[in-house]
């Protein structure tokens, strides 16, 4: 009778491992495949937006190419050609095509 009770206690701990082990494993895999790369992309994008300066050639989210002529904390004015200047939110910049020459 004591041996039967000892076997039940040891299989209970193993039962928890079989029950919750796959859930923990799925969370770890999802973290390394989805959450962590997204955080890295967000960090690089925010550093790119923080490093924008006057004279940078940029591409907006809509695909517009231009050069930054004025920039504030949340707005940047982009010169598209010699005459046309357009105002965008700073977050609308998708990529820096060519950094400004110092």
What does this entry look like structurally?
The structure is a single chain. This protein is rod-shaped. The chain has one helix at residues 2-50, and strands at 57-60, 65-71, 75-79, 85-89, 93-98. It has 102 residues and is α+β, with helices and mostly antiparallel strands. The chain has two domains: 1-50; 53-98, SH3 type barrels.
Calculate the mean pLDDT score and round it.
Answer: 87
Number of helices: 1
Instruction: For the largest sheet, list the strands in their spatial order.
Output: 4-3-2-1-5
The amount of helix comes to 40-55%
- Main sheet overview: 5 strands, antiparallel
The counted number of beta strands is: 5
Q: How many separate domains make up the residues?
A: 2
Order of SSEs, N→C?
A: HEEEEE
- In percent terms, what proportion of residues is strand? 25-35%
pLDDT < 50 stretches: 1-6
Give the overall shape, derived from the CA principal axes. rod-shaped
Question: What does the radius of gyration come to?
Answer: 27 Å
SS-derived structural category: alpha+beta
Label this structure with key terms:
SH3 type barrels, 102 residues, alpha+beta
Quick overview:
The protein is an alpha+beta fold and 102 residues long.
């Amino acid at each position: 009778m004591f041996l039967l009770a000892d076997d039940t206690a040891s299989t209970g701990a193993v039962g928890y491992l079989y029950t919750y082990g796959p859930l923990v494993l799925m969370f770890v895999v999802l973290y390394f495949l989805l959450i962590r790369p997204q955080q890295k992309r967000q960090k690089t994008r925010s550093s790119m937006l923080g490093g924008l300066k006057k004279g940078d050639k940029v591409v907006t989210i809509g695909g517009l190419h231009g050069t930054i002529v004025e920039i504030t904390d949340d707005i940047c004015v982009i010169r598209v050609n010699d005459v046309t200047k357009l105002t965008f939110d700073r977050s609308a910049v998708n990529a820096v095509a060519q950094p400004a020459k110092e």
